[in-house]
Design brief:
By secondary structure, this protein is an alpha+beta fold. The protein has a single domain (about 5-120), classed as Nonspecific Lipid-transfer Protein, Chain A, CATH 3.30.1050.40. The chain contains 5 helices and 4 strands. A hairpin with a 3-residue loop joins strand 1 and strand 2 (about 60-65). Helix 1 (about 5-15) packs antiparallel against helix 3 (about 30-45) and helix 3 (about 30-45) crosses helix 4 (about 85-90). The relative contact order is 0.18.
Length: about 120
């Protein structure tokens, strides 16, 4: 079982990319971006334990989360996929889930693929 994610570590990792998310900073280094994505996905999996939804943020990570029917082989019936910037905007309360899905920035398939009740994961003043 993976170790528990420290919320302060997630907050710090996401905070490191906030200037970029806000449109005022340079793109973060790949390692910084990867850390923010991976830690936030691990936090989601910790907050929503289960294996009924697969959340993919290529090229950095994917996790299974949310209780319900467990997926074991092939393409899962409930998939959420997005790019790193969109994911971190959702995580940091800079983008609303329904707006992201409606605009096509998030692909969410399956009747359990709504993550809105777990997002945002961190909030900043």
């Amino acid at each position: 079982m993976p170790s528990r994610v420290d919320p302060d570590e997630v907050r710090s990792a996401v905070l490191a990319v906030v200037p970029w998310l806000s449109g005022g900073g340079e793109p973060p280094e790949r390692a910084t971006l990867a850390a923010a994505v991976r830690l936030s996905l691990r936090m989601l999996a910790q907050l929503a334990p289960g294996r009924s939804v697969e959340v993919r943020v290529p090229p950095f990570a994917a996790v299974q989360c949310a209780g319900g029917v467990r997926h074991t082989r092939g393409t899962p019936p409930n998939v959420v996929e997005t790019d790193p910037r969109t994911w971190l905007e959702l995580v940091s309360d800079r983008l609303d889930w329904s707006d992201a899905v409606a605009s096509g920035r998030v692909a969410a398939s399956g009747n359990r693929a709504d993550l809105s009740h777990w997002l945002p994961l961190v909030r900043f003043p």
